[in-house]
Design a protein that fits this description.
With 593 residues, the chain is α+β, with helices and mostly antiparallel strands. It is built from twelve helices and 23 strands. The protein has a 23-stranded mixed sheet that branches. This is DUF748 domain-containing protein.
């Protein structure tokens, strides 16, 4: 039958050529595949063993070389540390700070050049793809504090006897399971990452790149993506999550989407902590010029700019209060910066459209009051504990624009001294016109005062403070201020008619200035901070101490009004007692008659 299709000479010649190709190319390729596979396996195993000074060995079930396709497929690959070698190196002072263990079911290497490897001792691969690898990192010591001897040879110097060059065009790793065990503390801390993808480009290890600091792990760029991560703080009081995070070492940029910090329930939280309870949500976080290489090496955090976009930040004060002897100075921003052990330097921190809410529980009203700053934009400069940076500039500044209770535009400027032992700081601000009734969300539960009418024309303050004392000037201009004094009951609130009358008639000034053209009232305030007052409460109480005189509420006048109310209440009670006694006497006489 075949002869029917080979009638012409050219057909026979073509068939001969085809058979010749099969014989001299494809058949040897099949033979070479089997011949080269064990050679390749031995080369890789030898390179890893020599490159790590016998600390690690590579093992895999099979390695298939497909010569014509330029592809290698490795099955059941493992990178295994030799603990005996590690312990020996530890005694010699040459052990690394961490050990790694890797397991991968399948590795595909494409566009390889086996002849370069065999004859030129150069490992050149176009692409490596790993699917669902499992990586375990065991961290034993902090290299920045480790006094052990170090092998200062570069990786190229370690492998140069076996390989003259290693080059990989692209590395793709998908669906990574990473388990990190930290043994440096009192107790091992274990964290786990899932749903992580990684892409590395242009991995090159040779004589030129062995000291190239612009590369990370000898790669031109490493991009990592992590999805749906959940973790807990060391004290167990907070759970933090984010939807996605992406880091590029080449662009030095980290992007996080959907970041949340959630505390445990209030009862459990305040049973273990005297601190304020925080809740945080951010739509996006962007770190620019993030020095990941330095952070990875020494845990020192450096970034030129951090941008927090959209979200909310809630501060909830401890309902039962804090013991008077407990110093809450650590809640002050610049004091908190000093207490951070790891070195860090942030040139600029930017907030965009973040709502800030301060919540406090009042025992008398048994309700929570909210002080709200909506749509907050802010720029913080020079947030650092770096000694060299502080020697040049020790002031951290903040420029803030927000909307107080969602209505009045508030412009604030802070300056924090980061080196002063007195922890000095200052702040000044201006509140634009707004209706006072919007403040009732705070004044009713926290002060049992309802503002029935009034409009702020402007509110200005300039305060200079230390950890002990706040001093400054406050000016509040307003019109038509009237209030109701309240008491809490089962239905919420009820009006205290007499107290309201006294407050509006004898205590409050309804306008400032009293008449057009007059000099408005202002206050020079001095506030001594109790030890147990945190940052936000100290600011509020300082401002409140200046607001009262601006509203005509002097200490003597307030005491006099309270005395008059007490006397009136005393007489009212005496009359009630006399009336009750009279009724009782009349009832007794009636019963005898």
């Amino acid at each position: 039958m075949a002869n029917k299709y080979l009638k012409h000479t050219w057909q026979k010649v073509l068939l001969g050529i085809f058979l010749f190709v099969i014989i001299i190319i494809i058949l040897p390729a099949i033979i070479l595949n089997k011949y080269w596979s064990p050679i390749l396996a031995d080369k890789v195993k030898s390179a890893v063993l020599k490159g790590t000074d016998s600390l690690y060995k590579v093992d895999f079930s099979t390695a298939e070389l497909h010569l014509l396709q330029g592809k290698i497929v490795v099955y059941e690959a493992k990178l295994i540390p030799d603990t005996a070698v590690y312990n020996r190196k530890k005694k010699e002072g040459q052990a690394p700070g961490s050990l790694y263990e890797v397991q991968v079911k399948r590795i595909v290497l494409t566009h390889i050049h086996p002849f370069k490897l065999y004859f030129g001792h150069k490992l050149d691969i176009g692409r490596i793809a790993l699917t669902a690898p499992q990586l375990q990192v065991s961290h034993y010591s902090d290299k920045s504090k480790d006094s052990t001897k170090k092998d200062n040879r570069t990786l190229y110097q370690k492998i140069s006897k076996s390989l003259g060059l290693i080059h990989v065009g692209e590395i793709y790793v998908s669906d990574v399971n990473l388990k990190y065990k930290n043994y440096t503390g009192d107790k091992p801390v274990v964290s786990e990452l899932k749903e992580m993808n990684l892409k590395a480009t242009d991995l090159l290890i040779d004589s030129a790149t062995q000291t190239d600091t612009s590369r990370f792990l000898y790669c031109k760029d490493v991009t990592t993506q992590l999805y749906n991560y959940t973790g807990k703080t060391a004290n167990g009081l907070y759970t933090y999550t984010f939807k996605s995070a992406k880091l590029s070492t080449q662009s030095s940029q980290l992007n996080i989407e959907g970041l949340d910090l959630q505390p445990v329930k209030p009862a459990a939280f305040f049973e273990k902590s005297d601190g304020d309870r925080f809740t945080l949500h951010l739509d996006s976080v962007q770190l620019s010029n993030f020095d990941f290489i330095t952070y990875n090496r020494s845990k020192e955090f450096n970034a030129s700019n951090i941008t927090l976009g959209g979200g909310s930040f809630n501060v909830y004060s401890k309902p039962s209060g804090v013991p008077k002897k407990t110093d809450r100075l650590a809640t002050f921003p610049h004091v908190g910066i000093k207490k951070i052990k790891s070195a860090f330097n942030i040139d600029t921190l930017t907030l965009k459209h973040v709502d800030v809410v301060y919540n406090e529980y009042n025992k008398k009203s048994k309700k929570v009051g909210d002080v709200v700053f909506n749509n907050t934009d802010a720029t913080f400069l020079n947030i650092t504990n770096n000694k060299d940076t502080l020697s040049k500039n020790n002031i951290c500044t903040a420029s803030i624009t927000s909307y107080f209770m969602g209505k009045g535009k508030l412009d604030l400027n802070f300056a924090f001294n980061l080196t002063d032992e007195a922890n000095s700081y200052s702040y000044k601000g201006h509140l634009a016109p707004m209706d006072m009734q919007y403040i009732n969300k705070a004044t009713m539960p926290l002060a049992l005062i309802k503002i029935t009418s009034g409009k702020i024309k402007s509110f200005d303050f300039d305060i200079h403070a230390t950890k002990k004392t706040s001093k400054g000037k406050i000016k509040l201009l307003y019109n038509d201020l009237k209030i109701s004094m309240l008491k809490a009951d089962e239905n919420g609130y009820s009006k205290k008619a007499l107290a309201t009358l006294f407050a509006n008639t004898f205590v409050l000034k309804h306008n400032n200035p009293d008449d057009p053209g007059e000099t408005p009232r202002s206050a020079n305030v001095v506030f001594n901070r109790p030890y147990n007052f945190p940052f936000f409460k100290t600011l509020w109480q300082t401002l409140l101490k200046g607001i009262k005189p601006c509203a005509g509420v002097g200490e003597e006048k307030e005491k006099q009004a309270m005395k008059q109310m007490d006397e009136h209440e005393k007489k009212k009670q005496e009359r009630a007692i006399k009336k009750a006694k009279k009724k009782a006497e009349e009832a007794r006489k009636k019963s005898k008659g």
